[in-house]
Specification:
Strand content: under 5%
Shape: flat
Largest sheet: none
Number of domains: 1
Structural class: mainly alpha
Number of helices: 5
Helix content: over 70%
Distance between the termini: 75 Å
Length: about 120
Amino acid sequence: MDELSNMLENAPQEEELHTANQSKELSPEDIQRIAQEAIDYASERAPGPVVHKVMIMGLIARMIEWHTHMGVDMFDNDNQMSGVCWLRDAGKFQSMMDSLVNISVDDDDFTCAQDD
């Protein structure tokens, strides 16, 4: 029982465990490898270009959300110039999305808005 009590006293705090994991920085090579693994996994599971288009659209949607959130946050913190820049970039991502829904990548491209 004393040994268990000693272990509990010397154990790292919950916050320390989460902070250590969050502060680990990934190298550019790590990030590229992780992204490539995700692309390869998707290609194995769903051959063809539609899965890649859906991935791109999902990622762009996240970028729109992130940039919009950051822009609003900047405005809330009285940093209008940065807010405008973040929201302008959100619009650029929206433009990318608008272009993607008009590009067919396959006869079975259910994401395409065009009927030709």
